[in-house]
């Protein structure tokens, strides 16, 4: 934690009045004051016209008491109980203030000298993330692998680079009860999750400095494969095809002209759509699969042509569930339409959208493309386009740096 943050840390206990306890009981709030504002793209500190650092509100932590308290106590016994609990919480706040003064307190209320690595991962790190069950299960298996490797949980302060390297070697050599080793994708996946977890601990989030796993390469980078996408005339061919898999074809075409993913298509209801009649524009509200955040997207007239007319608000747009189809059936549709490119999956619909958008706008409006593709920053969109269109981008002379 920087000196700027540490010098501004304040600790308060709420509520002040023992007779006005709310549903949370007594709790501690640690204020971190302000921190320098950082440019999201360049990651550099920002300054005002006078050369002074621009400051923004820093995060704050809250800790809630587990002791029994009474909301708006009705008698002397309940008031005495509340008073006793407040005294205990004040003692905890005093300990935190002392740790701050000694420089041992870290963001998140951790005293790293007695905090265990895996315990913190399972009970603090994971609950703070809105992960799918499959991701949480992967971290549980990761915990078991580390316990097998080390024989015990270790203090965060015990972790060093050698231990990280040895753990990665253990994953690569580990043999299960069936005599089989972990697959390459499995042991690389576990190590990547381990590295990501450590990155969240360091850089001032919980501990200062760099992660001890920083610089450990998880395998050699594989040559990037060319991304498959359909040209506009190929999508036109597909549109003209008569097939018994008509709902699957319509869904793929809608995705190709909207960049909405397959998982999002499955959840779409007509109530998610809104129509600006004055400007004849359609919008859809979706929950982005990667981020879990809601987004409102403009949907082209072409995309809407594959799903209109509109149904009732509670009706699913695709009444025949798309997951009842498989990749092989999508391949048959493409072959019937005279399209030989492979592999064609629902993910290629996003490639179709990106290539058409880039060409139509001649390299402009990449911010809008970034939003449609669910990317968190523009650099991701730039890399994606470069791997998708490659030299074509360079030949057109379009700048990807804005």
Explained architecture:
The chain has 402 residues and is mainly alpha-helical. The chain has three domains: 3-112, no CATH class; 117-201; 232-396, Intergrase catalytic core (hpI Integrase, Chain A), CATH 1.10.443. It is 42% helix and 10% strand. The strands form four sheets. The chain has a three-stranded antiparallel beta sheet, covered by helices on one side. Strand 8 and strand 9 (281-287) form a beta hairpin. Helix 5 runs antiparallel to helix 6 and helix 8 (246-256) packs across helix 12 (348-360).
Question: CATH top level of the largest domain?
Answer: Mainly Alpha
- Radius of gyration over C-alpha positions, nearest whole angstrom: 27 Å
Mean pLDDT: 82
CATH topology of the largest domain: hpI Integrase, Chain A
What distinguishing features does this structure have?
mainly alpha, globular, about 40% helix, about 400 residues, 3-stranded antiparallel β-sheet, 3 domains, disordered C terminus, hpI Integrase, Chain A
Quick structural summary:
This protein has helices spanning 3-8, 76-102, 117-125, 133-150, 161-173, 184-201, 232-240, 246-256, 262-267, 301-304, 327-336, 348-360, 366-372, 378-389, 391-396; strands spanning 10-14, 27-31, 34-36, 55-57, 60-64, 105-106, 110-111, 273-276, 281-287, 294-299.
How are the SSEs ordered, and which strands pair?
Elements lengths: L2 H6 L1 E5 L12 E5 L2 E3 L18 E3 L2 E5 L11 H27 L2 E2 L3 E2 L5 H9 L7 H18 L10 H13 L10 H18 L30 H9 L5 H11 L5 H6 L5 E4 L4 E7 L6 E6 L1 H4 L22 H10 L11 H13 L5 H7 L5 H12 L1 H6 L6
Antiparallel strand pairs: 1-2, 2-5, 3-4, 6-7, 8-9, 9-10
């Amino acid at each position: 934690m920087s000196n700027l943050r540490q010098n501004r840390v304040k600790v308060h206990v709420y509520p002040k009045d023992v007779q006005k306890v709310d549903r949370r009981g007594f709790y501690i709030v640690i204020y971190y004051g302000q921190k320098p504002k950082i440019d999201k793209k360049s990651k550099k500190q920002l300054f005002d016209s006078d050369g002074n650092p621009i400051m923004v509100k820093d995060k704050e932590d809250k800790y809630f008491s587990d002791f029994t308290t009474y909301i708006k106590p009705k008698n002397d016994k309940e008031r005495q109980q509340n008073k006793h609990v407040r005294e205990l919480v004040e003692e905890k706040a005093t300990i935190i203030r002392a740790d701050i003064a000694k420089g041992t307190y870290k963001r998140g209320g951790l005293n790293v000298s007695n905090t265990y690595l895996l315990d913190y991962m399972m009970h603090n790190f994971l609950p703070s993330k809105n992960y799918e069950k499959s991701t949480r299960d992967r971290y549980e298996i990761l915990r078991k692998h580390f316990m097998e490797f080390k024989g015990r949980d270790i203090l965060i302060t015990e972790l060093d680079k050698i231990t990280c390297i040895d753990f990665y070697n253990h994953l690569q050599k580990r043999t299960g009860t069936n005599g089989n080793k972990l697959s390459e994708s499995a042991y690389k996946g576990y190590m990547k999750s381990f590295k990501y977890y450590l990155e969240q601990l360091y850089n001032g989030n919980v501990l200062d400095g760099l992660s001890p796993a920083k610089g450990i390469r998880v395998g050699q980078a594989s040559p990037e494969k060319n991304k498959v996408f359909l040209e506009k005339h190929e999508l036109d061919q597909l549109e003209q095809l008569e097939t018994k898999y008509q709902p699957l074809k319509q869904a793929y075409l809608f995705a190709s002209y909207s960049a909405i993913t397959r998982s999002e298509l499955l959840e779409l209801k007509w109530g998610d759509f809104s129509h600006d009649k004055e400007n004849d524009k359609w919008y859809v509200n979706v929950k982005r699969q990667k981020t879990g955040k809601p987004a409102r997207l403009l949907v082209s007239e072409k995309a809407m042509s594959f799903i209109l007319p509109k149904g009732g608000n509670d009706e699913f747009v695709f009444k025949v569930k798309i997951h009842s189809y498989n990749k092989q059936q999508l391949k048959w549709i493409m072959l019937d339409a005279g399209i030989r490119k492979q592999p064609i999956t629902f993910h290629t619909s996003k490639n179709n959208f990106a290539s058409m958008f880039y060409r139509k706008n001649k390299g402009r409006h990449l911010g809008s493309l970034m939003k449609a593709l669910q990317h968190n920053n523009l650099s991701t969109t730039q890399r994606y386009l470069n791997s998708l269109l490659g030299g074509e981008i360079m030949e057109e002379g379009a700048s990807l740096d804005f």
